Amino acid sequence: MRVWFITGASRGFGALIAQEALEAGDAVVATARNPQTVIGRFGNHPGLLAVTLDVTNEAQAHSATEQAVKHFGKIDVLLNNAGFGLLAAVEEATAAEVEKVYATNVFGLLKVTRAVLPHMRRQRFGHVINISSIGGYVGSPGWGVYSSTKFAVEGLSEALLAELRPLGIKVTVIEPGYFRTDFLDDASLTVSGGSITDYDETPAGAMRSKAASANHAQPGDPARLAKAMIKLVNEPNPPFRMPFGSDTVAAIEAKNAGVAKELHRWRSLAVSTDFPDARTTSAESENLKAAG
């Protein structure tokens, strides 16, 4: 029996993935600030342990982890799902708003991960799955601060991949596009109160209207994503980066092409800053690789 530890499990992706895991015969430690919301949704399922967890509270992160291991004996999958959005031009976002979104999306993820990893290291197995976003790969106007939290998640995840692989622990970062969840509802999205009129006619201002009109009209089906997550954890060699949604795939392809084009154009200036002997050594290394 596989044991999941899911943050933000009372609604959205967290609740849907918890449901799929339970139906697959797995056990789920479903955490939420109010665990009664979890019990109200799933009932008293024998494979479910509802635990109090505000991810910004480090003591609660350790307590929830200890309860999970005491109850089920192990944690196979850590799903860092808790998070929320902030819609604002970078200049518009207040210091308090920036600190709050980082406290959950970045520092909260770190607190929970650091609490779970000692148990996975002792086991010498596990799978850490961090929910990022297409905003963690491609920055967009109006989402700059939120995207920066997800860029941080991606950077942390890449480092964890290299650090944990020798210990038998897998790492995957999930990049959903626009899915028909409650992400754009008031419960999951903060719209900055520091609106600046100069941005009204810019892409950042237009994003406010787009977000409102897109709510519950997004192309992605969250139920399909939840089912895909079960397939993902069943893979013996899961991918590190897993985009979900045709919009995400298109955005990644466009960014990769743009980066490659820009790098090609500016390559000579980019490498011109090396010491001459370093450039020679680098060129020789590349020639050796090309020769096989």
Q: Which keywords apply here?
A:
9 strands, 15% strand, 7-stranded parallel β-sheet, alpha/beta, 9 helices, two-stranded parallel sheet, Rossmann fold, globular, 2 domains
Structural overview:
The protein has about 290 residues and is α/β, with parallel strands linked by helices. The chain has two domains: about 5-245, 3-Layer(aba) Sandwich (Rossmann fold), CATH 3.40.50.720; about 250-290. Helices cover about 50% and strands about 15% of the residues. It has nine helices and nine strands. It has helices at about 10-25, 35-40, 60-70, 95-125, 145-165, 205-215, 220-235, 245-270, 275-290, and strands at about 5, 25-30, 50, 75-80, 85, 125-130, 170-175, 190, 240-245. The chain has a seven-stranded parallel beta sheet with strand order 3-2-1-4-6-7-9, with helices on both faces. Strands 5-8 form a two-stranded parallel ribbon. Helix 1 (about 10-25) packs across helix 7 (about 220-235) and helix 3 runs parallel beside helix 4. It is globular and about 65 Å long. The N and C termini lie far apart (about 45 Å). The model has no long low-confidence stretch (mean pLDDT about 90).
